Amino acid sequence: MIMNYSVLLLEQLQYEIFDRCQIEQCSAQLHHICNIDNTKNQEGRDLDKIKLDFVFRTGYQLGRLYRYVKLAVLGSLAAALVLNTHSLLASLQRNELSERRFLQLNKCPACWGTSWCRKFLNGQLRLESWGRLRLFDFFNVKNVYFARYGEPREGSRRVVLKRLGSAQELADIDTKICRRATGRGRCDLLQALHATEFASLNGDVRLLTPDAVEGWSDLVHCPSQRLLDRLVRRYAETKDSGSFLLRNLKDSERMQLLITLAFNPEPLVLQSFPSDEGWPFAKYLGACGRMVAVNYVGEELWSYFNAPWEKRVDLAWQLMEIAEQLTNNDFEFALYLLDVSFDNFAVGPRDGKVIIVDAENVLVADKRFIRQNKPENWDVWYESKFDDCDKEACLSFSKEILCARVTVDHNYYAICQNLLSRHATWRGTSGGLLHDPPAEIAKDGRLEALLDECANPKKRYGRFQAAKELREYLAQLSNNVR
């Protein structure tokens, strides 16, 4: 990274010195760009000439240094490719997804599951193109891979593979397990796991209860028994799924469930609120070791930032519908999105449907439980505070309040502020998904007013009404352009 930065810096200096001054073209332009005053006396001209000579000489030296650095970088890359040709070819030829070590299957039950191990080990999944080269793992910080999955009579399709954390995060959880069990950073992981809280529910424990896992992750920041029963009943990494009784799981399956819940509960969100039942999440397929497979949805939402207006209106309407569905549904579970950015949504290439593809940070509040318990101010509407921070994808929220109120506008706020309105910033851009509307819509002003009120309301409880009207208005615009 330092080398790349140095090359870019030298390149920029070279461009500024030679391109901007353009000394080869004409002396008059040179004098103009470098701010030489032709009315100066001869002594001043001589001094300016000395300064220019120094600049040009320095620029020439920097240009030579730039070329040397560039050659050195290219030479290093060439040498690395030559020295690693055999390993690169081997990486392209072999299928690492059928190797137990690559899958970290040896870490189980400190892993995410084994339901898809037969498919992995039988070679039914293969990494795509550059994903086979370990040389590029340095850039794949999130440990997300694209692969082809094939059934003998069904052909192949694209899937997404996730390790659910960076290499450092995965190493950290191993270290924590060892320290809790032995006091040391390294140990026999399988033996150590049985001395941690992940094995505390082994044996004849009947239910997964709130006191055992409360606060382990966003998913169970404030779990009700009804939510935990749902997690166990829909747990896909067991052959006997369908029962909410924890004792029906094997000890290894219980530990896998708990460690997934603590480390990254995304698989449990996808299993408990599946796409097959209309929830807006990617479809969970299975796991093997520390590799989870989910259905490939399509290009990320960011790819549509400059799509035609008609397409962006439809996507915006879908996003507001997702916010409504996750907030108000017949199951009385409110799923609050705590991490909202253009990278966390994708769009289906055929049906154009918007799907959430990163569900790690989802807080689930049981509205039925809140109504029964009636905590303080439980029936007071909660309006999220606008956060005008200088970073991308900012959100302001209180998990405790999200867990204790029945009527909350968080999802509308998150979608409007981080994706749709002029306050949305991502990868150096601003203006949100609905930037640059057609002239007649911009002149009307209604869309901008609704987006502003949804992101940063001026009236008390104004966001609730603005979100409702925005959904209706986007639906109207979407129908008009179809």
UniProtKB/TrEMBL annotation:
Keywords in alphabetical order: Secreted, Signal
GO cellular component terms attached to this protein's record: COPI vesicle coat; extracellular space
The UniProt record lists the keyword Secreted: yes
FAM69 protein-kinase domain mapped to chain residues: 259-457
Locations listed in the record: Secreted
Domain of life: Eukaryota
Transmembrane segments: none
InterPro entries found in the cross-reference section: DIPK2A/B, FAM69_kinase_dom
UniProt similarity note: Belongs to the DIPK family.
PANTHER family, A to Z: DIVERGENT PROTEIN KINASE DOMAIN 2A, GH11358P
Record's protein name: Deleted in autism protein 1
